[in-house]
Design a protein that fits this description.
The complex is a heterodimer. By secondary structure, chain A is mainly α. Chain A contains 19 helices and two strands. In chain A, helix 12 packs antiparallel against helix 13. Chain A is globular and about 70 Å long. The termini of chain B are far apart. The chains are: A mainly alpha, B mainly alpha. The interface between A and B is large, with 47 and 39 residues.
């Protein structure tokens, strides 16, 4: 029943907050709704990690450790974004960028968007997983277009067309998997799309079709995950969406698309006897290297953060491609760290962009003087995302490098290290320029709203904590989630 | 009957590269979807599988009636009847489309997929539809025509699953229909907003975001 509650809660929240005519009540309602979602997600996580995976409604709903891990990330970032939206959107209404009436529509789409990502993580059937990923594109395109300006419509259209066409190719890949599944499990056609069943018979699947299918799915879901060279929509969409939406897009939507790739990869890697990892390493390294020039020469703050997301998706893909217990542990630790750090960074960047009325790096300086709280959080988060110790991203990047060296892929680990050093240099140059320097006279001192402070403290506390040491429950959860990809995920207690 | 439907599918889709009116493209989508429904009905008649019948009924309701109606309404409201603009000229477009038809047949004959008994003959057409849909999106500069390209791709994939395995499990099939419906609603709603922001549906005006 928990799983049903998890899906109903964001739906109800979205509909009620969208219809509610008392504005303060709507604000509060959607915060409470997303808190309920977070509580349900935690209860599911406790159940999944302590005993066994959830399987309901004739195998329609299936949540194992990997799914539960993703659901936790979605609901934490979703909750923080819901809190942050209250104050961010109040400011937009005050500045007459949007009307109060539009805000209801925003709440509806935001929570519906969270629902679609939860669906992706809570199904067993690869076809339904595809349906969920397609829905995330459609709903989030409306959020990207929310401001209705020329730029936001351009970004939304590009996103919609690239996303839908890319995902159509993923469906083609899933058809190939279905075909090979039908061949292997002839007696139950309905089971031939189920991940658990396909994974059991992975060694008997036809390698040629599986390789075909895997490449199509990698390209298709890779478009959504922002892997280069299919990443063109990403900086546009992230820079034009409202800041809380950018945080959700970057923090968890990209993870959700990667989640789809990894599910399929787990099957393909068994069928192809370990060769599927090479594709992931190639795409991962290419994505990291493509972003270097765009981060080093960038004039738009939110675009810089978006390119950094492409880089981090590349790192996670690379780590899964390297594989082995250490590589997978590093990958999922990095997924967690990136979700928290990047959403924090988008929250603070959104705040800065609102106060300076600009996203252009040249026009932003003296942030720490103007907004002490936001400024310091921004600096911390930016250094964390660039990979400076003692923050958590440093830990996971280091783990991935060691995993690469241990797996005998020293060249991959070295290229990776060289590239992130360049990115670190580029990012810290711009961040220091924005953080310090002269305060423009037109900008007065502005205290940060309490809603925003609370929203930023949630991910901030997690990244500070994980930079020093990874708590035992998190470490265990990540190991369990990673073991799903290695075939040990059939529930710990079973 | 089978070859007749296939011919109608191919000819109507090729006509997409000749027409100058968006409204014609909407009619083509409706005809194409009706063809898919007939194919599903023919297969149902031969195999007696109930879910083929359900798929056929859904295709008629969603793809031949509801979706063309939404598109028709959008075309009328945005006054986009006559402004199909392509990157390539008419000769170039039709030439590449024909090449894609040949390539699709070639690919289909070399894939050596173990298709379903009554579906195999449609494999080539399905792949051609996917190719032509993609080319429609690349070639057209007008947003509604790009949206129509998306529908052609989806139609091709639908036919492909029918050809290989008489369709996907019913739950997935329903999900795909729902997605396509939502996609068309969102394409229409974005077209309205693009029209009111740019006073045009041409994507050439939307090239500001770079780097």
């Amino acid at each position: 029943m928990l799983a049903i509650g998890l899906l109903i809660s964001p739906l109800l929240t979205g509909v009620l907050a969208g219809l509610c005519s008392k504005y303060k009540a709507a604000d509060l309602l959607q915060v409470i709704g997303s808190f309920v979602t977070l509580c349900l997600a935690s209860m599911i996580a406790v159940q999944v990690f302590s005993s066994n995976s959830i399987n309901e409604f004739d195998d329609l709903i299936y949540i194992d450790a990997l799914g539960s891990f993703n659901i936790m990330l979605i609901s934490i970032v979703g909750f923080a974004a819901a809190i942050y939206s209250v104050s961010y959107m109040r400011y937009e209404v005050q500045e007459k960028v949007i009307t109060r009436r539009q805000l209801g529509r925003y709440y509806f789409f935001l929570h519906f968007f969270i629902l679609t990502m939860l669906i992706v993580s809570a199904v067993d059937n690869l076809g339904l997983l595809w349906v969920g990923v397609e829905l995330t594109t459609l709903v989030s395109a409306m959020l990207v277009a929310f401001y209705g300006t020329q730029h936001s419509l351009e970004a939304a259209w590009k996103y919609l067309i690239m996303g839908v066409v890319g995902i159509a190719f993923a469906l083609l890949g899933i058809v190939f998997f279905y075909l090979s599944g039908l061949n292997a499990i002839a007696e139950q056609p309905a089971a031939a799309l189920q991940w658990t069943q396909l994974f059991k018979v992975a060694a008997e699947l036809n390698p040629r079709w599986v390789e075909f299918g895997f490449i199509f799915i990698l390209i298709g879901f890779g478009t959504k995950a922002g892997l280069a060279p299919m990443h063109f929509w990403l900086p546009d969409a992230h820079s034009q969406a409202p800041a809380p939406v950018s945080a959700v897009l970057s923090g968890v939507l990209l993870n959700t698309a990667l989640y789809g790739i990894f599910r399929v990869y787990a099957i393909a890697n068994v069928t192809l006897q370990g060769h599927a990892g090479d594709y992931l390493i190639a795409f991962g390294l290419f994505s990291i290297s493509v972003t270097v020039p765009f981060i080093m020469v960038q004039h738009d703050l939110k675009r810089m953060l978006a390119f950094s997301s492409v880089e981090h998706m590349g790192i996670i893909t690379l780590a899964v491609g390297i594989g082995g217990p250490l590589g997978l542990y590093g990958a999922f630790l990095h997924m967690f760290n990136h979700s928290m750090t990047k959403s924090l960074l988008f929250f603070s960047a959104g705040n800065i962009a609102q106060k300076y009325h600009s996203k252009y790096i040249d026009r932003i300086s003296g942030v720490v003087k103007a907004m002490p709280f936001t400024g310091i959080v921004f600096l911390l988060a930016a250094f964390a995302v660039a990979g400076a110790p003692p923050f958590s991203i440093f830990m996971s990047e280091f783990t991935i490098m060691i995993a690469g060296a241990e797996a005998g892929k020293l060249w991959a680990a070295c290229t990776f290290a060289a590239l992130i050093v360049l990115i670190f240099a580029g990012m810290s140059y711009y961040v220091i320029r924005m953080g310090f320097g002269e305060l423009p006279t037109r900008i007065g001192k502005k205290p940060t709203d309490w809603w925003m402070r609370v929203a930023m403290c949630i991910p901030l506390s997690l990244i500070l904590l994980c930079g020093l040491y990874v708590p035992e429950f998190l470490e265990k959860a990540i190991h369990t989630a990673a073991s799903v990809l290695q075939g040990g995920g059939e529930g710990l207690g079973q | 009957m089978d070859s007749f439907v296939t011919a109608i599918l191919l000819l109507s889709t090729l006509f997409l590269f000749r027409t100058k009116k968006t409204i014609d493209a909407v009619v083509i989508i409706a005809v194409q979807s009706a063809g898919l429904a007939i194919i599903a009905l023919l297969m149902w008649q031969k195999t007696g599988m109930l879910h083929l019948f359900i798929a056929a009924v859904l295709t008629i309701v969603v793809k031949t009636i509801v979706i063309p109606y939404i598109l028709f309404y959008t075309v009328k409201k945005t006054k986009a009847q006559r402004n199909v603009e392509r990157t390539m000229g008419q000769f170039g477009s039709i030439f590449i489309a024909l090449m894609l038809v040949v390539m699709g047949q070639y690919v289909a004959s070399h894939l050596s997929l173990p298709g379903a008994e009554h579906g195999m003959r449609y494999l080539g057409t399905a792949i051609i539809l996917v190719f032509l849909g993609t080319f429609t999106i690349i070639n057209n500069k007008q947003v509604l025509m790009q949206g129509i390209g998306v529908i052609v791709i989806e139609n091709g994939l639908f036919l492909l699953t029918q050809a290989i395995s008489y369709g996907m499990p019913l739950a997935v099939e329903l999900g795909v229909f729902f997605d396509l419906f939502v996609a068309v609603v969102i394409i229409a709603s974005l077209s309205f907003r693009i029209h009111s922001a740019f006073h045009s549906l041409n994507t050439e005006k939307m090239q500001d975001l770079r780097g």
